[in-house]
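FORM 12-B: Structure-to-Sequence Request
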């Protein structure tokens, strides 16, 4: 693992971050003493099917008729003339 100084991080931050994005990890030192580690963040580009299935099956069931009735009670859906004053 590459070791860089605090000064190098400050002066060359753009190049260092590009190296980290490319997969390289680094130890940052202050006065020669390790104080931090820079490493790429693991980004998932997809959700595995098994994980998706577990999430979906854990969701509560929705009573669509009751949901629609709740919406109808809360929102007046009477058609109106758009040119008529409210």
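FORM 12-B RESPONSE
SEQUENCE OUT:
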């Amino acid at each position: 693992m590459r070791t860089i100084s605090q000064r190098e991080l400050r002066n060359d931050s753009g190049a260092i971050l590009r190296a980290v994005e490319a997969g390289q990890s680094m130890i940052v030192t202050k006065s020669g003493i390790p104080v931090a580690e820079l490493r790429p963040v693991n980004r998932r580009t997809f959700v595995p099917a098994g994980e998706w299935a577990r999430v979906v099956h854990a969701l509560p069931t929705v009573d669509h008729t009751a949901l629609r009735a709740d919406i109808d009670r809360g929102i007046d859906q009477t058609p109106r003339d758009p040119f008529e004053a409210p």
